[in-house]
Design brief:
The chain is an all-alpha fold. The longest helix has 13 residues. The protein is globular, with a radius of gyration of 18 Å. About 15% of the residues have low confidence.
Length: about 180
């Protein structure tokens, strides 16, 4: 999927590894929650999602670190939790995981289902990729009309690849057309 590189770059640019408790000493807040846990499993982050739902995007980007370190089953669980809570980048990451079969068997239908859910959040990158899936019949029955509609939505938001494809008359073989 063409947006994987952008997502990876964003995680590298914006994400720093979590700051571990100095010398293994954890601090506890007034509510009894650990403010600097030394356990950085996805379960710790799930607790943080419950406590700080307004920080979902920041918390969820740590799933990528698990994924990068090869802990695919935990990353899959973490991304799923984030996606179920509405985090569109996590939905796209799940689409990639199911597309490539990382830590799970490849599943084009699940990949495309997650792209659709992300597209429905008005996330232009997902709208473009979901539109391509529909045009190609990847994981779903081929549907040229809906595929064009989704790509047009992405183009209306200024997505450069969607704009190129619209200008190319939705010709997937045109030079410079990106896609998965």
């Amino acid at each position: 999927m063409r947006h994987v590189g952008l997502i990876v770059f964003g995680f590298l640019l914006l994400g720093a590894p979590p700051v571990h408790a100095e010398f293994g000493v954890e601090e506890v807040d007034d509510a009894g929650g650990v403010t600097n846990p030394s356990d950085f499993s996805w379960r710790t982050y799930r607790e943080a999602m419950n406590r700080f739902p307004d920080r979902l995007g920041i918390i969820c980007r740590n799933a990528f670190e698990l994924h990068k370190s090869g802990e695919h089953p935990e990353a899959l669980a973490f991304f799923t939790e984030c996606a179920e809570r509405g985090n569109a980048p996590s939905m796209i990451n799940l689409a990639v995981i199911y597309d490539l079969g990382l830590g799970t068997p490849p599943d084009a239908a699940k990949s495309t289902q997650w792209l659709k859910r992300a597209a429905e959040t008005n996330y232009s990158a997902a709208q473009y990729d979901y539109g391509l899936a529909l045009l190609r019949g990847y994981g779903v029955p081929r549907d040229e009309v809906s595929g064009r509609d989704w790509i047009a939505k992405a183009a209306a938001q200024g997505d450069s690849d969607a704009l190129k494809l619209v200008r190319a008359g939705f010709n997937l073989a045109a030079p410079g057309i990106a896609g998965f």
